């Protein structure tokens, strides 16, 4: 398959319109259409962004070749990773379909307060990223393990993930405290 055919196939498998993919990599919908029709290639940095957003290797995107191990895993599990995953928030009140998660340090956190917060990004608009607090973490080790497990879940084709390492917290008027 050609690059254009691979791009179109992968984009459709991920449930993305040309416009949605174009927005993710900061190009016009017409550029994506042109590439899919075989009318050229994007710049190298855009190819890398496309591969990341479609969650495939550059080899697979450009010429349709993937490692034998990944190929077998996809056949066995019928997995098509989307790069998105639904995560229930720490309080269980909201489920956020995230295309990105980010970690922030809690500045001036006291002894009984969480040190880190995990945010889920569900969309990007003109005004920036729309984030939702997914969970609070008492230490760096727990948040790192959470990020690794979320990444594995996405790469494994899971559509949903429950936080495993988030600390139990109590949200008060003047802040967040560890329970």
From TrEMBL:
HTH cro/C1-type domain boundaries: 7-61
InterPro entries: Cro/C1-type_HTH, Lambda_DNA-bd_dom_sf
Assigned keywords, A-Z: DNA-binding
SUPFAM superfamilies: lambda repressor-like DNA-binding domains (SSF47413)
Top-rank taxon, per record: Bacteria
Transmembrane annotation, as ranges: none
GO molecular function terms noted in the UniProt entry: DNA binding
Name listed for the protein in its UniProt record: Helix-turn-helix transcriptional regulator
Organism: Alkalicella caledoniensis
